[in-house]
Design brief:
The model has no long low-confidence stretch (mean pLDDT about 90). The protein has a single domain, classed as 3-Layer(aba) Sandwich (Rossmann fold). About 25% of the residues are buried. The chain is about 35% helix and about 25% strand. The strands form 2 sheets. The chain has a two-stranded antiparallel ribbon. Strands 3-4 form a two-stranded parallel sheet. The chain has about 80 residues and is of the alpha+beta class. GO terms for molecular function: magnesium ion binding; phosphatase activity. InterPro entries: HAD-like_sf, HAD_sf. This is Pyridoxal phosphate phosphatase YbhA.
Length: about 80
């Protein structure tokens, strides 16, 4: 929480033993949405694939989110 509050960064688990640290408000889902909209497309027509916790925002933002077979059950539940 210190890193998030003091430095304006966010921590997100990418796997059970790996943490991604990025600028606050930055996520795969937000970046994908921004790029898709810049192309003049709609997120409802996007299919995203992922297997880690850091993919959840992307899987939820896409019209169709697909969790890979090796994904944690928590990731599969959000796809």
């Amino acid at each position: 929480k210190h890193v998030e509050h003091e430095l304006g960064l966010e921590c997100e688990w990418s796997w059970h033993d790996q943490v991604d640290i990025a600028r606050g408000g930055n996520s795969k889902g937000k970046r994908l949405t921004k790029w898709v909209e810049a192309q003049g497309w709609s997120m409802e027509n996007v299919v995203a694939f992922g297997d880690n916790f850091n993919d959840i925002s992307m899987l939820e933002a896409a019209g169709t989110g697909v969790a890979m077979g090796n994904a944690d059950d928590a990731v599969k539940a959000r796809a």
